[in-house]
Structures are given as structure tokens and as C-alpha cells.
Design a protein that fits this description.
This protein is mainly beta. It has a 5-stranded antiparallel β-sheet with strand order 1-22-21-20-19, with no helix packed on it. A 4-stranded antiparallel β-sheet has the order 2-25-24-23, with no helix packed on it. The protein has a 4-stranded antiparallel β-sheet with strand order 3-4-5-6, with no helix packed on it. The protein is globular, with a radius of gyration of 19 Å.
């Protein structure tokens, strides 16, 4: 399903950089997961893309698109944006040792909507061979605020962003409910003995709709984006056992927030050598905006970058990095650094882009 068209000229890019469209034909592509240490052959898996309505695509070194998995949802989406069409398969991460994929999604169970995580395996990384359920039976909803990003920490544990389910925001403070939390678990779904509560998967609480997650090498910490109701979208550094305030506050223990909502989705630090040294440790944030809004808008449709103070007391700078200037509903959603640049998905056109340093003479 393609809702919009797009071309390179529809995007403004920060001076000194250029945009390259590397793949098309995706259907509602959400998040990106790179293969750690990919092979050098043209047909070796390079990255995976989660597609909202139950498919996973694998893109090889030569940027050919293959279907890794399909029909992962047990319900028929209704395509309503904004609304219940925003739900489905969201989170994706590659387990470095095995190459297995962890995926997060919602499902239907006797008329109830629930969330789960599955682990999939493959013989060659190109096609799913098997899947097992890691955790399930988490109450959810056909809308945003569902199970979101998955990430693997430096401690080799699986971290899960879980929205509050939208219906009763107080669950974000309930230690007996997993919603509105960041979860930490072993790869088999069990509780690590060194969790804040050794009998609970809850790592931190008080979140509303935490979509994106990324790990920062300089402090070995997890950072997430969290969406507010009409104000106070935020970025937070997640620390074990901390309370991040929702539903009373979306500024509590936050690093940065927007007074006017922008709908932050995926986030990623520049911490290798993809960009010049001046950009090291800057955080890049995809701002989605209002779903299906057309043309130039105030909210979202851009990627911004922020430089954080060394003591995490605030930010040093804030810049627009990429901005959609066309007439369609296009907007960046997934975002991740590869070895050769910053990649992002345009949800509505089904395109995958790479931002790279501009060559001299271009």
C-alpha cells in the first residue's frame, strides 16, 4: 500500500549533506534494524524494516528488497490515519550473536487486543524459518500507545518501550501493570535478577507513548522519545527504578521537551564515523507530526538534531536536519545510523532514504 509519492526534491537537507533514495516499494515502513557486522556479498542481509501491517523486509547489500516475514498479524487492519490504523507491528532489533530478530506487535485474542514480542530465526537471514513467543498477554489497544521500540543494551538484555494503552493513563504508575513502562528482560522473556525489582520486568515507569529508543556509547545509557497529549513531547535518559511522571507530568526526569507537540518517533546518536567529528554524540530525532497531514505543516515532517550538555542538564543546540517540503502526507518515521550514513523511512511513500556527506562538486 502506497499512500503518497516522493522525490529527492521534496526534501530539504542540512548544508553539507545530501539525500539518496536507496529502496522503494515498502508498505508503511516503520522501524529500521541494521545487521551487526554484515557480510560483504551483494546478497548478504544489510538491514531489516518492520512494516506496520505485519511484514518484515530485509534489504541486502545491493539494496534489493526481500520479504523476510509476512502475515504476522492475526487481524485485518482498517487503514485509519489517525486512529486504529496506526497499530500493528512496530519494534524490531537484531540479536547480534544469532542474527535472530525480536519483533513487537499487537494481536487479537478472543475479542481482546493484546501485545506480544516474538523471536524469529532464519538460516540465511533472508527468510524467516521459525518463531517463538517471548512474552505476550499484555493488554493493548488498536491505536497508538501500544508496544513500541525494542532495543538491546550493552548488558545484553532486551529493553521494551510500552505505551500506557491510552484508555487509563494511571496504569503508568501501577507497579502491577506493565503498561506505561520501559521493560528489561532476558532474551527468553524472564526477569533478570538485577532488575530494580528482581521479581518484575519493570525497569522504569511513568511513560505515556514512548516510541523510540537508542543506546548512547559515551554513558552506556538508554534514551527514549515519549509523546505527550498536546504538549511536552520529550526525550528522557532512562535510569533503573526511576519514575518519569506520567500521568501527572511529562517533564519529570526529562532531558528535553517540546512545548508544542511534534510526535517524536525514532531516535539515534551519531557515535561512530558516519559524519564529521563535530557531530559526534549528537542525537537525531524523527518528528512525525500529525498522521496523514498533507503538505507543509507546523508539526513534524522533519528530522532534527540536538547536542546534549555533558552533564545531561539540558541541550547546547537544536537544528533542523531534514525537512519535507512537498505536498503529500509524507513524513519520516524510522531512523537509524548505518555504517555509511543516517537512514530513515518515509511511512506513506514506502521509501527508504540515506543521508550522507555531500560530495565535493555536487
Amino acid at each position: 500500500m502506497k499512500i503518497a509519492e516522493d522525490t529527492i526534491k521534496d526534501w530539504w537537507v542540512f548544508p553539507g549533506f545530501e539525500l539518496e533514495k536507496v529502496a522503494t516499494g515498502l508498505e508503511l515502513p516503520v522501524n529500521i534494524a541494521f545487521v551487526p557486522g554484515p557480510g560483504q556479498n551483494a546478497q548478504d542481509p544489510f538491514l531489516y524494516v518492520s512494516q506496520l501491517y505485519g511484514q518484515v523486509k530485509v534489504i541486502t547489500r545491493d539494496f534489493t528488497v526481500h520479504t523476510y516475514a509476512s502475515d504476522l498479524l492475526n487481524f485485518k487492519p482498517d487503514y485509519k490515519f489517525p486512529g486504529s490504523g496506526e497499530s500493528g507491528l512496530i519494534g524490531i532489533v537484531v540479536e547480534p550473536e544469532s542474527g535472530d530478530l525480536f519483533l513487537s506487535m499487537i494481536y487479537e485474542d478472543n475479542g481482546e487486543t493484546k501485545a506480544k514480542i516474538i523471536r524469529t530465526s532464519s538460516e540465511d537471514g533472508l527468510r524467516m524459518k521459525s518463531q517463538v513467543t517471548v512474552i505476550d498477554n499484555i493488554p493493548s489497544v488498536h491505536a497508538a500507545h501500544q508496544i513500541q521500540a525494542l532495543s538491546i543494551g550493552f548488558d545484553e538484555k532486551l529493553y521494551v518501550n510500552l505505551g500506557d494503552g491510552m484508555i487509563d493513563s494511571k496504569v503508568a504508575q501501577d507497579d502491577n501493570d506493565l503498561r506505561g513502562k520501559i521493560l528489561r528482560m532476558n532474551f527468553d522473556g524472564s526477569v533478570p535478577s538485577d532488575n530494580p525489582n528482581p521479581e518484575s520486568l519493570i525497569y522504569a515507569k511513568g511513560f505515556r507513548n514512548p516510541f523510540g529508543a537508542t543506546w548512547r556509547k559515551s554513558d552506556q545509557a538508554l534514551y527514549v522519545s515519549d509523546n505527550g497529549p498536546a504538549s511536552n513531547d520529550r526525550i528522557a535518559k532512562v535510569e533503573p527504578g526511576k519514575n518519569y511522571g506520567w500521568p501527572e507530568s511529562l517533564r519529570q526526569n526529562s532531558l528535553f521537551w517540546w512545548n508544542f507537540t511534534q510526535a517524536p518517533t525514532a531516535i539515534a546518536f551519531m557515535q561512530d564515523s558516519q559524519f564529521p567529528e563535530d557531530y559526534y554524540d549528537e542525537l537525531f530525532i524523527s518528528l512525525f507530526g500529525t498522521p496523514n497531514a498533507k503538505g507543509k505543516v507546523i508539526k513534524g515532517k522533519k528530522i532534527v538534531k540536538i547536542k546534549i550538555n555533558e552533564d545531561n542538564s539540558g541541550i547546547v543546540s537544536y537544528d533542523e536536519f531534514v525537512k519535507y517540503t512537498g505536498v503529500g502526507p509524507n513524513s519520516p518515521c524510522g531512523l537509524a545510523f548505518g555504517k555509511d550514513g543516517l537512514y530513515f523511512t518515509d511511512l506513506f511513500s514506502g521509501s527508504l532514504y540515506k543521508i550522507k556527506l555531500k560530495k565535493e562538486g555536487n
